[in-house]
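Protein folds are increasingly written down as discrete tokens. With that in mind, we are printing a sequence and the tokens encoding its fold.
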Amino acid sequence: MGTAKNTLTVVGLGAGDLDQLPYGIYRTLKQASHLYLRTQEHPVVTQLATEGVTYESFDAVYEQHDAFAEVYEEIVERLLTKAAQEDGIVYAVPGHPLVAERTVQLLLENGPARGVDIEIGGGQSFIDPLFARLKIDPIEGFTLLDGTALAAHQISPGLHTIIAQVYDVFIASDVKLTLMDVLPDDYLVTVATAVGVKGEERIDTVPLFELDRLDHFGNLSLVYVPPAKDERVAYRQFSHLKEIVAVLRSPDGCPWDREQTHQSIRKNLIEETYEVLETIDDEDPDAMCEELGDLLMQIMLHSQMAAEEGYFTVDDVIATLNEKLVRRHPHVFGEKSAEDSEEALANWQEIKAQEKAAKGIDVTTQSKLAGIPRDLPALMYAYKLQKKAAHVGFDWDDIADVYAKVDEEYRELQEASEDERAGELGDLLFAVVNVARFLGLDPEEALALTNTKFKKRFSYIEQKLQEAGRSFEETDLQEMDKWWEEAKHHAKGRE
């Protein structure tokens, strides 16, 4: 036979005053030999006290902890300890026990293992009177969120949103800042306190930025956010982007977008990537924001095409990425550790090898040069080839040898026949990439810096010609070289 369990009865105090309390719950509260309240800040409690009902509240526990999670854990621990020792304990919470009551969920999770049966006695939640007061039809869709642990990703702007447990201005301020990640600062929201309680009900609709300036936050306060119909809100939603791309590719969409294939827009992906890189080099965040959007559009188009062909969706792309990021960062999301970037990289490489093995790829027989994207720019490709070769010991011992190799390749280029020049030039460039690698420099970035420098100096020559009212045909190399040196001098002066 199993050990008999004591029972802890949990009831809700409802959303209003004593007149709205069901008779069965009223009788349970009146007859309780040991009545505990999460908080005594509720209209029903004041009225019960006048009828001689005695109780013990956990309000003091809130003052002893900095986090709500700690408060709830201590309340549950006290209740289960008492309930395991004696029967007939009643625990009363505002509203309904199963609506926005974390302590009740913790009791249900931990009670049976502690020898305590948790019996839910019911009650009226704040949702019913709120729907009635604000004339909301829940069939349109709504979300109920916890103001003490609100995150932007939880908010669905197209639904009615109720944010409960907004106890004070500090929580209200956190709620406001979180909502501002999704909604415009002037979006109208409603703060409701003690809905349905005669003489205590307060309802105010204010712009979002004024949310925490109201003065009636308390245990019975919540924030209501109506569904958003504003384009400013829709444009910030990833789901809206998916809809737009699907429409563009639909029979009623854009003829050009409908005609595209993975291959036809392949080059666009490369071009948009380089446009993003240009904004990074220019340190232009506004332009970067726009160009990253253009790059994302290419990803969306490829994903939409794949979805139409039944291969994968953009959600699959995101899921694959999320899974990979978690899997390859066991030092962050798992039990491994990494004291520095080298250890983190070692973890990453080890997991990549395990992934290849799981796919049936034998890394022991695979070329050591495998895994480099073949469409990389040639300088970058050469750099990665050399790094992989160096990793297994195929490398120069000293940079002096590399400089000597550059001199050798330079002489061979000078002596090459017309048919040999392209190959000899490639050998020289490959040797120069080796120099960059030994110096710890990225040759692609180094050449990009020189390209930028050349463009600025040449633009200076054009400026001087324009100031003189002359064209390139009306000058000579000697004069242009003089301006080139001036451009160099001005650039050094700014540095």
